[in-house]
Write a structure and sequence with these properties.
CATH architecture of one domain: Orthogonal Bundle
Oligomer: single chain
Shape: globular
Helix content: 25-40%
Order of helices and strands: HHHEEHEE
């Protein structure tokens, strides 16, 4: 059984209270508000166990650094589906652009 340390608590608090997925460096910056001597190596070490247990999620985006998110934040603060087609466009016109909004021809 793992010990609950100040470092682990600060790291989990940083992830759980964030409104978006955080990169390890961002976790470090937030957690240092509680534990000023925290190192990036400690952050990485303490991300492994909760990641394997499912207590936090890895958010991988193409071309970007991996980010970490809590399951609660992932289910309540954001989603990754495009917005619905605006009613004024009708059923047949245009095509979807990168943002998911229709592009008028």
């Amino acid at each position: 059984m793992e010990r609950a340390t100040r470092q682990k608590l600060a790291i989990r608090t940083a992830i759980d209270t964030a409104r978006r997925p955080l990169m390890p460096q961002e976790v470090l910056e937030d957690a240092r508000l509680q534990v000023p001597t925290l190192s990036i190596a400690t952050v990485y070490r303490n991300l492994k166990a909760p990641l394997q247990d499912g207590a936090i999620h890895l958010v991988a985006m193409p071309g970007a650094s991996p980010r970490y998110d809590s399951p609660q934040a992932a289910s309540t603060t954001h989603h990754h589906s495009p917005p619905p087609t605006p009613a004024w466009r009708g059923a047949g016109g245009g095509r979807r652009g990168r943002s998911g909004w229709g592009v008028i021809n």
